[in-house]
Design brief:
about 180 residues; alpha/beta; five-stranded parallel beta sheet; about 55% helix; elongated
Length: about 180
């Protein structure tokens, strides 16, 4: 198993659509590419799964038109909940308008595309969104680490210059 496949096997994608055939198709496409999947046929069920800490979700793919609570309202609730607000969400729809796409993006959707779903379009979007999320987490970690360094040394202009000079010289030091 390649490193990429191993990483994907650890990533769980929640598929939310009231059409069983769409859920099954997405499941086959995603699991065929090495991802784990969960399914929900309603926004309410999806929110319940997202609140279950024993099975963390790395990405949500949600249909815009769902019974009872729609995909946009579910996205709004995902974004307003501290426990789920960082989970990336891709919105899909068979009856999308430009207004719907704009609303989804304004609410924080990572991507938006229409049905019928093209296998490669789904996989490219999922990979891009998950890669972007991983890079964002890495950047946050690096920023936190850099911040801790500067806190220990000081934040004045003179101390920052000294720190920059040390970083320039440190890698050239013979081991």
């Amino acid at each position: 198993m390649t490193a990429i496949a191993a990483t994907r096997a650890l990533q769980t994608i929640l598929i939310v659509d009231d059409e069983k055939n769409i859920r099954r198709t997405l499941q086959m496409v995603l699991e065929g590419d090495g991802y784990q999947t969960l399914e929900a046929d309603s926004a309410e069920r999806a929110l319940a799964l997202l609140s279950a800490p024993e099975r963390p979700v790395d990405l949500v793919i949600i249909d815009l038109k769902l019974p009872a609570m729609g995909g946009l309202e579910a996205l709004s609730r995902i974004r307003s909940d501290e426990a789920t607000k960082a989970i990336p969400v891709i919105v899909i729809s068979g009856h999308a308008t430009v207004h719907d796409a704009v609303a989804a993006v304004k609410l924080g959707a990572a991507d938006f595309f229409e049905k019928p779903l093209a296998r490669e379009r789904v996989l490219v979007s999922v990979r891009n969104v998950l890669d972007r999320e991983a890079l964002s987490r890495e950047l946050s970690g690096l920023r936190a680490e850099a911040s801790r360094r500067y806190e220990m040394i000081g934040t004045s202009g003179v101390m920052r210059k000294l720190f920059a000079d040390i970083e320039k010289v440190a890698p050239t030091k013979a081991s």
